[in-house]
Predict the structure of 3-isopropylmalate dehydrogenase.
Amino acid sequence: MKKYKIVLLSGDGIGPEISEVSKLVLKKLSKNYNFDIEIIEKLFGGIAFEKYGNPAPDETLNQCKKSDAVLLACVGDIKYDSLARELRPESGLLKLRSALNLFANIRPVKIRKSLIDSSTLKQEIVENVDLIVVRELIGGIYFGNPRGHITNTKIPKAFNTMVYDSAEIERITEIAIKIANQRNKKICSVDKSNVLEVSQLWRDTVLNFTSKDKNISLSNMYVDNAAMQLVRDPSQFDVILTSNLFGDILSDLAAMLTGSIGMLPSASLNNNGPGVFEPVHGSAPDIAGKNIANPIAMLLSASMMLKIGLNEEEAAENLENAVDKVLSKGFRTADLADRSSEVLTCSEMGKKILDEI
Ligand code: NAD
């Protein structure tokens, strides 16, 4: 029997609620598909700061490095916003990404037929949406140096540095090419090369590297236009390839095409070593502890983990289908509900999905 060791980081806010559902689902899938999954739970984020004074303790990071994959819920809370930056839960995320060298973030955005009415956009705009955002994750302005505050000026000043070298751009382009080749072979590279030197390097490097694969059709778009096109005609996109900052913003925008940020999974990958699989959403402090969060983004992240991280494709597909079946029967969590839907709590939604596995 195959044996997997995964680390579960439940984190903060709604994290423990959606993680509980994910554990039950993974246990059932492992039984049905005859593999053994050891789920090691570790503290991460605000809760780890409370206990160890560090949002990403070494023990957690070391356990993640030794695992087959990491399933992460979400971190953060307004109460940590006044801490020094390196102590905040979000810095823990950056540390985890760096520690595992997770340079590629993959965010599939696919409209589920049963949820077309949940989108804030018209049905005809969103009905064929099926795109993937490939975002560079450990470079660019979030990591660039120098950064900081300038204190010896009359008015407060602060600055960051957006920096990439061509090797960083090439390795993320390679991932985008691999993904595009499994789909419609179209890559749209998004940058701001009309203004930024770093974006010009991005554009030139992507063009150069992509020209090696004659199957790929490459287009380029400025990020402001890409934001507009995602709302105007999102089905024109197949694979969107972009840098850390632009990818962060565009993938949340793309999330809303599907109806709720509570539906979107993601995978953060390295060329070898464990990946981190996590919902796109944050810790939703406004609804934490109420058992009303949508657990589906985390379940679909678990499905990506099974497929990409553990090579358990059948189990992954079963989980995706179970989610679709429950949604097509009209069951919804509050974030997706309209007047005609039956509104379920987080744990009730988990139970319905479990019953379809
Ligand atoms: P958020 O994604 O937590 O919430 C935005 C809105 O979406 C809220 O109204 C929330 O209730 C709703 N929402 C999010 N997930 C949901 C779900 N599963 N089911 C139902 N509704 C859901 O973003 P925010 O409010 O900007 O940030 C809250 C905290 O999360 C902050 O501390 C932020 O730094 C952190 N954050 C963490 C991550 C992460 O862990 N990867 C990502 C983004 C934000």
